[in-house]
């Protein structure tokens, strides 16, 4: 499980002006991140606009990513949803050869009980031919995966960790305190990466690192080495830019930042809208000095 310590990047899905997938840009994005020291890549996560890509596009994105990455770093693939049976069908029909783990977001909108969440993830882990990472993001799903439920799920042989984006440090510490040996606790909050590593977590699956992979990877490595003075300074360097990434919806902000770097265009699919002129100007100003 050491493969997933460090910086993982929740890759955006680049689009062309007609909103078709831009595979040339996707290749540039993958190479940009790999050449700047990230530890693994996540394809078709929620930052990849997985809710608006078609089943055929998901298959093509995965196949393309496997070929482009060519085993240089671990590959995590996002399969999640709020209809358990549909998620199981997606797993069954996906070509997961060459995929190192699934990242599966907790069911959204339904607001299931903790028992429902437990049963959902147990079914997913039972069905998956590769290890599963839980993903708790209550700000988007409308429900929290409690520490007790996470620790209960951690007993499953095919569940290897959690991306924890609750922002609740006490909850994260409770998981770290009582987790089985080897169970990964990964931050899903870019601006809490260093504090979360300081209490025993294993790294980050990041949005910001799409655009700032070298600086973000360096920060995470320093924190994992216990150099919190330098890591903290790098963490604070993202203070101005980070909230702009989400102000008009994710991945609107980071796609605009990537456009400024010449990696991909900033197109997003409805119901997301392109970054407003005001947001564009503020991202440009905040990104000054954050080059790799």
TrEMBL record:
<dbReference type="GO" id="GO:0008840">
    <property type="term" value="F:4-hydroxy-tetrahydrodipicolinate synthase activity"/>
</dbReference>
<keyword id="KW-0963">Cytoplasm</keyword>
<dbReference type="GO" id="GO:0019877">
    <property type="term" value="P:diaminopimelate biosynthetic process"/>
</dbReference>
<feature type="binding site">
    <location>
        <position position="47"/>
    </location>
    <ligand>
        <name>pyruvate</name>
    </ligand>
</feature>
<feature type="site" description="Part of a proton relay during catalysis">
    <location>
        <position position="46"/>
    </location>
</feature>
<dbReference type="GO" id="GO:0009089">
    <property type="term" value="P:lysine biosynthetic process via diaminopimelate"/>
</dbReference>
<keyword id="KW-0456">Lyase</keyword>
<feature type="active site" description="Proton donor/acceptor">
    <location>
        <position position="135"/>
    </location>
</feature>
<comment type="function">
    <text>Catalyzes the condensation of (S)-aspartate-beta-semialdehyde [(S)-ASA] and pyruvate to 4-hydroxy-tetrahydrodipicolinate (HTPA).</text>
</comment>
<comment type="subunit">
    <text>Homotetramer; dimer of dimers.</text>
</comment>
<comment type="similarity">
    <text>Belongs to the DapA family.</text>
</comment>
<dbReference type="Pfam" id="PF00701">
    <property type="entry name" value="DHDPS"/>
</dbReference>
<comment type="pathway">
    <text>Amino-acid biosynthesis; L-lysine biosynthesis via DAP pathway; (S)-tetrahydrodipicolinate from L-aspartate: step 3/4.</text>
</comment>
<keyword id="KW-0457">Lysine biosynthesis</keyword>
<feature type="active site" description="Schiff-base intermediate with substrate">
    <location>
        <position position="163"/>
    </location>
</feature>
<keyword id="KW-0704">Schiff base</keyword>
<keyword id="KW-0220">Diaminopimelate biosynthesis</keyword>
<dbReference type="GO" id="GO:0005829">
    <property type="term" value="C:cytosol"/>
</dbReference>
<feature type="binding site">
    <location>
        <position position="205"/>
    </location>
    <ligand>
        <name>pyruvate</name>
    </ligand>
</feature>
<keyword id="KW-0028">Amino-acid biosynthesis</keyword>
<dbReference type="InterPro" id="IPR005263">
    <property type="entry name" value="DapA"/>
</dbReference>
<dbReference type="InterPro" id="IPR020625">
    <property type="entry name" value="Schiff_base-form_aldolases_AS"/>
</dbReference>
<dbReference type="InterPro" id="IPR013785">
    <property type="entry name" value="Aldolase_TIM"/>
</dbReference>
<dbReference type="InterPro" id="IPR002220">
    <property type="entry name" value="DapA-like"/>
</dbReference>
<protein>
    <recommendedName>
        <fullName>4-hydroxy-tetrahydrodipicolinate synthase</fullName>
        <ecNumber>4.3.3.7</ecNumber>
    </recommendedName>
</protein>
<feature type="site" description="Part of a proton relay during catalysis">
    <location>
        <position position="109"/>
    </location>
</feature>
């Amino acid at each position: 499980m050491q493969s997933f310590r460090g910086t993982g990047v929740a890759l955006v899905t680049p689009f062309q002006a007609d909103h078709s997938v831009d595979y040339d840009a996707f290749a540039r994005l993958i190479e940009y991140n790999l050449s700047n020291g990230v530890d693994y890549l996540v394809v078709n996560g929620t930052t990849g606009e997985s809710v608006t890509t078609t089943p055929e596009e998901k298959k093509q994105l995965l196949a393309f990513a496997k070929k482009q990455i060519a085993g240089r770093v671990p590959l995590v693939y996002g399969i999640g949803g709020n209809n358990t049976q549909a998620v199981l069908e997606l797993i069954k029909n996906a070509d997961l050869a060459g995929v190192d783990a699934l990242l599966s977001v907790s069911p959204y909108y339904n607001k299931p009980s903790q028992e429902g969440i437990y049963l959902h993830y147990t079914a997913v882990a039972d069905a998956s031919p590769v290890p599963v990472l839980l993903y708790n993001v209550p700000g988007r799903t409308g429900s929290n995966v409690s520490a007790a439920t996470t620790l209960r799920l951690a007993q499953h042989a095919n569940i290897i960790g959690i991306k924890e984006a609750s922002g609740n440090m006490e909850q994260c510490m409770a998981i770290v305190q009582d987790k089985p040996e080897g169970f990964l606790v990964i931050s899903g909050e870019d601006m809490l990466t260093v504090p979360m590593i300081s209490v025993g977590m294993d790294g980050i699956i990041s949005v910001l690192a799409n655009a700032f992979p070298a600086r973000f990877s360096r920060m995470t490595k320093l924190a994992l080495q216990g150099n919190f003075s330098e890591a903290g300074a790098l963490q604070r360097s993202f203070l101005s830019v980070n909230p702009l990434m989400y102000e008009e919806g994710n991945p609107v902000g980071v796609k605009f930042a990537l456009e400024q770097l010449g990696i991909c265009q900033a197109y997003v699919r409805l119901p997301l809208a392109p970054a407003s002129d005001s947001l564009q100007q503020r991202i440009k100003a905040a990104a000054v000095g954050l080059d790799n």
